[in-house]
């Protein structure tokens, strides 16, 4: 009877988490990364792959999402629900394979912690691969472990490991690193079992299957230079890496959050990790063999993070948000460690702490999603834009959002730095055109809207210097709380 009630409680927590994530999926706001996904999915299937070559991520997620959209549509709501579904699947693995392989309690705490971590809510509702990829990574690790425990004799686990490893590698480069880390540990462990030949077969299958991926990786890596947007700040990135899953991206996703509050959240996260690590260590001292799954998980994570930190000394590729791809592995380790806390008051206190942080973090995120202030830009465009108007800006983050929210607009992205982004940004076509000079804009006979720009100088000035158009009106900044998007228009005619 107790076992059935425990299983029922597990299912109820998973269902509550899923309902929670679904509840946050009905807004129609997007930011640049989501706009890219929405734009790409609206292209023909071949173009989804072709345009993606110019991006910094592999194509499999976009292909699957495109196929999904053929059935369920490509509206913002429909695409967002795809992320919710896979976040629910990821949490539900606690009741299925984790429960089966590692015990009911570990599976229960896996699902519970996953639901309580604030980042789960945020990335369940982003139209990106951050709920899809970790499912593939976790399944790669689980079936690799099953294959390892079988002494490399379980053919089903072998096939599934290879399948999820390859699909994950084609989804995100952190998933590729995860597959590499698992294979590296295979090599270390199976050398002792004299099974190096089987390891070679596994490695060859994955390498041959990923030849197109390597070609794409080399091409995409050319766009990542030391001045790339990713910046590693020591030692801050250590705290952010530990706090990311519990509190999300602080303070980036909540405008106005103080630095002190951010550090408090970081401190809470470090404290939680420290407590879990302590009890895991105490358990490990007495039960080393039983800790093998958690240790292998830690080693896998360590190899991945060490690799990207080393690579980032040359090219900046370590970014905290990308750790979302590893969320299943990270939560599994924390669940395993959390289960070893036998003191009820400690475990209960930590759960209350996580629940409190969840409420405090999700409340402003939810408000930013659904506040009526997000509609201000739509109202402005409806009231002020006329047929034949064009918009020009060098702020791709803003014009990309406009391209997907307002496909009726004629938009130009001024690529004055001459980045090789034309192929990737074809995802926003036909409403957005990337140009390296403004001759087409200058030749436009009608009104021109200049949108807040980044580069030194002014698009307004360039238009006035090269045409007979003058500034008609400078409008006040329109702030969209969702991802703090700031639209500042100047009308010339």
SSE blueprint:
Blueprint (H helix, E strand, L loop, with lengths): L1 H22 L8 H10 L3 H8 L7 H13 L3 H17 L4 H6 L1 H13 L1 H7 L7 H18 L5 H15 L3 H19 L4 H14 L1 H11 L14 H12 L11 H28 L5 H20 L15 H13 L4 H27 L5 H9 L5 E4 L2 H10 L4 E5 L17 E4 L3 H4 L5 E4 L7 H8 L4 E4 L3 E3 L4 E3 L1 E4 L1
Parallel strand pairs: 1-2, 1-4, 2-3
Antiparallel strand pairs: 4-8, 5-8, 6-7
Helix pairs in contact: 1-5, 1-7, 2-20, 3-4, 5-9, 7-17, 9-10, 9-11, 10-11, 11-12, 11-16, 14-15, 15-17, 16-17
Structural commentary:
With 493 residues, this protein is of the alpha/beta class. The chain has 2 domains: 2-370, no CATH class; 374-492. The chain is built from 22 helices and 8 strands. It has helices at 2-23, 32-41, 45-52, 60-72, 76-92, 97-102, 104-116, 118-124, 132-149, 155-169, 173-191, 196-209, 211-221, 236-247, 259-286, 292-311, 327-339, 344-370, 376-384, 396-405, 439-442, 459-466; strands at 390-393, 410-414, 432-435, 448-451, 471-474, 478-480, 485-487, 489-492. Helix 7 (104-116) packs across helix 17 (327-339), helix 11 (173-191) runs antiparallel to helix 12 and helix 11 (173-191) packs across helix 16 (292-311). 40% of the residues are buried.
